[in-house]
């Protein structure tokens, strides 16, 4: 599955063979630079709409917005810094599939000029700064000339050759048609954070389902792991903050083996401290990897919830909780029934549930295991597909949960429900996660790594719903 031997492709500086130069290009002019990129112009799943092109236009830099002269009447203001970045790794996310499937038809209806314009997907990336505009020297000069340190540019920290990790918001990708699945990309510096040169143990061990090699302590390993940090990590952090976890509390993390869930269990432990309790829920094959993240007191198997994993033996009989429903337990019960049997008494119920899958059923029965003043913090509602019908159905359930969460006669559960979404996390959240990552307090679980040419295979793993952590794409050399 994982291809780790293919060398990165060099950026093309010539166009592919084709017809003679166009009328606006004389025979003696230098051909325009082109790059490799994955693009789509029609809606569908990745295997049906995503295509690899070798002659995608090289990003215009500085961007046109900085090249346009002013009228001379406006007040001078510090220009926004942009970066030109050679992409090293990108990480895949389910939300990108949703955009691929639904966006092109909607754009065709609403904006005829946007129809057929190639779109490059993917939010998460790591890479190397090739250039900045204004340049780092210009930004430094602007900072020294400013009398107000608070208003001075902080963008000068991005130098040529700097390693960065970035999250491209949906709004930027939609307006620019530019995402991380291309060899070189240009975007505002506010979407990027500097990568650390090294990370402390245990992050240095590279929490990877395929390898825990110490080789991940190299910069190349950091680039790979950090590529999966922001969208999943920021979503998990938003859920943890919505739950307002406090030291000593008890929290359940559902979907603990996915990209969001594997970070949520770690952030939950950071929030509740060693005196608190973190319980993870995932599938049988992922019990051990989740437990080995070192954050869960034990991990439950949602397929066979009458057993738990404590790390000592693979299957332990449930003895957790002081509930009154321990007798008559069977291996045929659902995870909701198992939790209710373990935590039916208010004094042992969870203070919060972090749902990283979007299970409506888990929320519907949460009164049986979540305290009356507890918070059910979800990453949304899981949709049974990427078409309009399942998305609308999920949206309806989301609205019902948010508007009437405590009104039982209107279909509520009597428990507060909150949803976290990640359109633009902001610098504070991104820098906080990079800090935890560099200190070894946040590990990135990697399911698999794929060569740039094998993006479609990576998406197949993502769509299978069985990924253990993040799926990363090796776009170029470190």
From TrEMBL:
<feature type="domain" description="Enoyl reductase (ER)">
    <location>
        <begin position="65"/>
        <end position="473"/>
    </location>
</feature>
<dbReference type="GO" id="GO:0016491">
    <property type="term" value="F:oxidoreductase activity"/>
</dbReference>
<dbReference type="GO" id="GO:0005739">
    <property type="term" value="C:mitochondrion"/>
</dbReference>
<feature type="region of interest" description="Disordered">
    <location>
        <begin position="129"/>
        <end position="156"/>
    </location>
</feature>
<protein>
    <recommendedName>
        <fullName>Enoyl reductase (ER) domain-containing protein</fullName>
    </recommendedName>
</protein>
<keyword id="KW-0560">Oxidoreductase</keyword>
<dbReference type="GO" id="GO:0008270">
    <property type="term" value="F:zinc ion binding"/>
</dbReference>
<feature type="compositionally biased region" description="Low complexity">
    <location>
        <begin position="7"/>
        <end position="16"/>
    </location>
</feature>
<feature type="region of interest" description="Disordered">
    <location>
        <begin position="1"/>
        <end position="78"/>
    </location>
</feature>
<dbReference type="Pfam" id="PF13602">
    <property type="entry name" value="ADH_zinc_N_2"/>
</dbReference>
<dbReference type="InterPro" id="IPR011032">
    <property type="entry name" value="GroES-like_sf"/>
</dbReference>
<dbReference type="InterPro" id="IPR020843">
    <property type="entry name" value="ER"/>
</dbReference>
<dbReference type="InterPro" id="IPR002364">
    <property type="entry name" value="Quin_OxRdtase/zeta-crystal_CS"/>
</dbReference>
<dbReference type="InterPro" id="IPR050700">
    <property type="entry name" value="YIM1/Zinc_Alcohol_DH_Fams"/>
</dbReference>
<dbReference type="InterPro" id="IPR036291">
    <property type="entry name" value="NAD(P)-bd_dom_sf"/>
</dbReference>
